[in-house]
Amino acid sequence: SQQGEEDPQALSIQEGENATMNCSYKTSINNLQWYRQNSGRGLVHLILIRSNEREKHSGRLRVTLDTSKKSSSLLITASRAADTASYFCAFMDTGRRALTFGSGTRLQVQP
Amino acid sequence: DAGVTQSPTHLIKTRGQHVTLRCSPISGHKSVSWYQQVLGQGPQFIFQYYEKEERGRGNFPDRFSARQFPNYSSELNVNALLLGDSALYLCASSLGGGVGIETQYFGPGTRLLVL
Question: Is it the case that residue B96 has pLDDT exceeding 80?
Answer without folding.
Answer: no
